[in-house]
Amino acid sequence: MKKKNIIIISVIVVAAVVVWFAFFRKSSNEDFKLEANTMQPRDINIMVTATGKIEPVIKVDVGTQVSGIISKIYVDYNSEVKKGQVLAELDRVALQSDLRSKEMEVNSSKVEYEFQKKNVDRISELYKKELVSKTDYEAAQYAFEKAESSYNKLQSDLVKVRTNLSYATITSPIDGVVLSRAVEQGQTVAASFNTPTLFTIANDLTKMQVVANVDEADIGDIVVGQRVTFNVAAYPSDVFQGTVSQVRLEPIITSNVVTYEVLISAPNPDLKLKPGLTANITIYTLEKNGVNSLPNKALAFTPNVEMLKKAGFTVQEESESLEKSSQNKEKSPSGKKDRFSSNKRKVWVLNGNTIVPQRIIIGVTDGINTEIVSGLTESDVVIEGITAIKKGGNAPEKSPFMPQRGGGGRMR
Question: CB within 8 A of 144, min separation 6: which ones?
Fold first, then answer.
């Protein structure tokens, strides 16, 4: 009997040791890190990114309406010009010859017109006195009208020839800078159905614009007046500022991808921005600076009761009465849901060694932080997560590329 008792006691001791090693030793080798944060003023920005081209606000292509040989060119690339300044001249020999020929035709037609006018007046008087036949009168009237029509037509042709001669002198339509020159002296230009471009002039390079292509998924958030920042490869360390000046309604469809053009005004006082540069732009569709907010991780936290108990914390669950009270508060006196009901969330706040739920109302979010409208104070410590690590072991490594959360703290 004594031997049997000794065996029973030995089995109990071994079982106790096994249980201790299996549970208590394991727990004693674990430590817990409670991640927490507080509500702090942060900047919440929602942005849309796109690419575009730098262009002058006003750009004019200067061409010619007559064909001929370029006899003189007075400007070159980057030349500053004034409105009305002569840029180039076409050879005038052929145009002046056309003018002289047309003037002679007009003079000849004028003589014929004046003769026929006198003749019809004379025949008309004789016809009234019944000294000539009606056939002679109608023939004289016909000859006069024909001479008058020819004379009027040749006068119009003369105006056209004179205008073409004036087109031989090519002038600048605006004040600005010559961006491009497409012809050389002695080159022949032919004005047919399409007017050939000789020069391209930008009005004012201190005022530029970015023509950006915004995806159809983002265009609904873009409105005139929003702040824009952008950079160009020529100056990678510089950040340029701009403002949305126009949202064009015409869709641009390329390979079944729909985009819309957004014009962004960009001051260029130091002339760093050159026409044609590619700009990587950021449009701030929403900006709230210094609003009380929490990291989104805090709103997604769900307590692991077992792990928290091992760490020495207790979790207080919401009572049914609190749930019902919260649901009733979401409704207005008319019985309809309150407009803030979709913005209600639950977070877990540390109160001593107890983790308690707290109802809050949230505002906007940028995907990293969320605005807290009400329900928390700046002293409330909101739980973000809990991790178990072995004592004496190294903490899980953090990627150097992961963003660091400001204003938060860790508590054991």
Answer: 113, 116, 117, 119, 120
Contact 242, 11 (CB under 8 A): no
What the block records as the tokens of 131 is: 């000294």
Token pair recorded at residue 68: 């001929």
- Residue 219 pLDDT more than 90? yes
Residue holding tokens 């500022």? 241
Where are the CATH 2.40.420.20 domain residues in the chain? 29-43+291-411
* Strand pairing report for 30-38 and 408-411: antiparallel
What is the CATH code of the structural domain delimited by 29-43+291-411?
2.40.420.20
What is the rounded average pLDDT of the residues 338-355?
77
Q: What is the pLDDT of residue 111?
A: 94
The H or E element spanning position 260 is: strand 257-267
- CATH 2.40.30.170 in the chain is located at 47-57+201-288
What local confidence, expressed as pLDDT, does residue 322 receive?
Answer: 46
Amino acid found at 266:
A
Arch. (CATH architecture) of 47-57+201-288: Beta Barrel (2.40)
Residue 42 has pLDDT above 70, yes or no: yes
Query: What is the rounded distance in angstroms from the CA atom of residue 165 to the CA atom of residue 146?
Result: 29
Q: Per-residue b/e over 375-400, b at no fewer than 16 CB within 10 Å?
A: bbeeebbbbbebeeeeeeeeeeeeee
Helix (H, G, I), strand (E, B) or coil at 356: strand
For residue 410, the surrounding DSSP H or E stretch is strand 408-411
pTM over 0.70: no
3-state DSSP assignment of residue 25: helix
The structure tokens listed for 217 are 């998924």
- Using CA atoms, how far apart are residues 246 and 262, in angstroms rounded to an integer? 6
Q: What is the pLDDT of residues 267-316, one digit of tens each?
A: 999 999 999 999 999 999 998 899 999 999 988 888 888 888 887 888 88
Using the predicted structure, report yes or no on whether residue 12 has a pLDDT greater than 70. no
Question: Which whole number is the average pLDDT over 92-98?
Answer: 90
**345, 296 in Cβ contact below 8 A?**
no
Cross-strand partners of 60: 201
